[in-house]
Amino acid sequence: MNDKPTIAVIGAGLGGAAAGALLQQAGYPTKVYEQAPSFSRLGAGIHLGPNVMKVMRRIGIEDKLDAMGSHPDYWFSRNGMTGEYQSRIPLGEYALEHYGASYITVHRGDLHELMVDTLDQDQLFFDKRVTDVDDNGDKVRLTFADGTVEEADLVIGADGVNSQIREKLLGTEAPIYSGWVAHRAIISAEKLKAYNLDFEACVKWWSEDRHMMVYFVTGDEKEYYYVTGVPEPDWNHGTSFVDSSQEEMFEAFKGYHPTVQALIECTESVTKWPLLERNPLPLWHDNRLVLLGDACHPMKPHMAQGAAMAIEDAAMLVRCLEEVGADDYHAAFELYRSNRFERASRVQKVSHDNTWLREEEDPAWVFGYDVFETPLKTPNTANEESPT
């Protein structure tokens, strides 16, 4: 008989899928609820550093990701106008030797599909949007938009920047629009062959107030992806993204290097997304509810570590439940927060400042981290001040 508590994970994004997979592996009766009607291969790229690949190893999909993804030898930073190199951060074999796992770039949808497939499909429920959460002290009662009601002993809010579980803990408060937008596009690499230019596997083009990050999202290098950071004073569209255009991209990157101009010329479809943040939250958990990922620390994507923090959160949360024993979930949740707050807040700050790897620096504090091996800080010794 399984005497472990029943757990509901709200949100089947990357953090929620990681939490669900690791909990089910550890023997917790875990159901995962996702508000989207079905899985879809969303058109975006993602970096998976060695810190994340160690979690993928535990979940059991590291080898598949290694085979699927692109393995850049370097993260290059280049001056957007002149093309001059500002930094060359070694990855490839260096990452394997020094950080203990690969550094890959991959299509986010392909990663997500692999992660979702590791879940018990009988315990994964789509089209489930939470409308009410009642934590009565003994159980948590979840009401969904379709009228169904479910109960669980513990609930993990992995439901993103507009989290219903966060609202239950802290009230309704809109995330902060950062004043920046991200344009996203996937380009067929075949089109780039017409140009006598060097399209590197992982490169960020910088100028004073904007950038374009570019990388392959498949191991066969057939799909090339870019994501930008561009200042835009207001976001009044009322939607999570809107269509952009080649014309808008040419205007945003006027004067940039010919390689960037070629990428824009080859762009068939591009979308524009607001970059949202929150200040470090005073509360990550209360009674039977706990948050992870964008539900408690959304950040700009300028370190390529937002999803990584959600995945690390999931792994640390399960580690703390196992360490303390889920019967004492109050202590487990506080141990989890104490071992994630400082790191997540530091990554939030560096992401906000948009300085990561712009110049030569040592990224070992990010890439060398192992969520399963790092010594646990007890709550009374953890430094919980937000980095300044």
What would you say this structure looks like, in words?
The chain is α/β, with parallel strands linked by helices and 388 residues long. The chain has helices at 14-25, 50-59, 62-68, 92-99, 108-117, 164-170, 189-192, 246-252, 258-265, 306-324, 329-338, 341-353, 364-367, and strands at residues 7-10, 30-33, 45-48, 74-79, 85-90, 104-107, 124-125, 130-135, 140-144, 149-152, 154-157, 176-188, 202-206, 211-216, 223-231, 242-243, 271-277, 285-286, 289-291. The chain is built from 13 helices and 19 strands. An 8-stranded mixed beta sheet has the order 5-4-13-14-15-12-17-16. Strand 13 and strand 14 (211-216) form a beta hairpin. Helix 1 packs parallel to helix 5 and helix 1 (14-25) packs parallel to helix 10.
